[in-house]
Each structure stands twice: as C-alpha cells, then as structure tokens.
Amino acid sequence: MTDRPPLNVLFLCTGNSARSIMAEAILNRLGQGRFRAYSAGSTPTGRVNPHALDLLARQGYPTDGLRSKSWDEFSRDVEGAPAFDFVFAVCGDAAAEVCPVWPGQPMTAHWGVPDPAAVEGPEAEVALAFAEAYRMLTNRIQAFVSLPLASLDSLSLQRRLDDIGRTAPDDGR
Fold first, then answer.
1. Residue 170: inside a domain, yes or no?
2. Which one of 36, 54, 123, 163 has the fewest beta carbons within 10 angstroms of its own beta carbon?
3. How many domains does the chain have?
4. Which amino acids are annotated catalytic?
5. Residue 122 burial by CB count (10 A; 0-12/13-18/19+): exposed, middle or buried?
6. What strands lie across the sheet with 7-13, from one edge to the other?
C-alpha cells in the first residue's frame, strides 16, 4: 500500500437520489481506500430514494451520511471542494447537460444506467429495477477499480473508461 491520497471520484445523475448514490457507496467500499467517492445531481430531489437506501443497507453498506445534493457543492467556486480525478455520469440526462467546471481537470465518462426510481408498478418490479441498477454499477465499478491506473497513459485510460460505460446491461461484466 502506498501513502498516496485517495483518488476523488464524482458520480453525477440528474436527481442524485438512486444511481449516483449507490455508485458512491459501492466505490467507497470496493475502492478499499484508493478512491474517495462523492455523488451529486444537476437538479437533486433533496432526498435519497428509500429503495436505494434499503438495497444498500441489505448489502451491508453504511447509509448514514448519504444525501441528495447539487453538483454546485463541488464546483470550482466552492471553497474546500475536492479536486476530482474522475467524474462519471450514470444517467442519460446528466450526460447531455452542460456540466460545471470541475477542480483538477478530471477524466470523464458516461456510464448510463436505467433509472430505477422511474419504475412504477408492483413492489417486486421496482425492487428488480433497483437490483439491476445496483448490479450494473457494481460491475462497472469493479472494472474501474481493477484498471492498472499507474501504467495507463491518458488516452488509453480514457478509452478504457469509455469502454466500461459501453458495457451492455445484460452482459454480466
């Protein structure tokens, strides 16, 4: 283990209530201290979706401290905002929006995941949508933390980050 500070990663989504929140929790666990994850939204709902909190709690993730917040908290104009090494949009809406300028000139990628919070219907159907989003995020984040970051040049790393986002929802990666 090195004495390097953790790499800062921001997960973005429109509402910051489900996908980006789950991604934050997943990377903070899987990153094993090598990464520090944050999440935010362009138009946050102001509350974390209870289905996301329930799923994370059942998987053994700490959920206290998770909150829906605006990406304005992390913009260059905010004193004390972390400099990000990576910024990943996990929904289609955030990828199409104009993003703020992030401190640190991070590498970016779009890792779109269907919005489980938009699913309506029987409880089992909603739970399945959240489980599928969790699975996709976990697989992509596992691929990310497995990258040999120190040995990849910028272009190769960007290509790998983009490839992770192109992973099909049902391919098991």
1. no
2. 123
3. 1
4. 13, 91, 99
5. exposed
6. 35-41, 7-13, 86-89, 107-110
pTM of the complete model beyond 0.85: yes
Give residue-wise pLDDT tens across range 85-125: 999 999 865 455 566 667 678 999 999 999 999 999 999 99
Range of the domain at 125: 7-165
The verdict on residue 148 lying in a domain is yes
Distance, CA of 88 to CA of 67 (rounded, Å):
18
The packing angle between helices 19-30 and 50-58, to 10°, is 20
Core vs surface per residue 126-165: b (16+ CB within 10 A) or e: beebbebbbebbbbbbebbbeeeeeeeeeeebeebbeebb
Q: Are strands 107-110 and 35-41 parallel, antiparallel or unpaired?
A: unpaired
d(CA 151, CA 148): 6
Residue type, 96: A
Asked if residue 105 belongs to a domain, the reply is yes
- Residue closest to 46 by CA, chosen among 16, 14, 21, 10: 16
116 located within any domain: yes
Question: What's the CATH number where 11 sits?
Answer: 3.40.50.2300
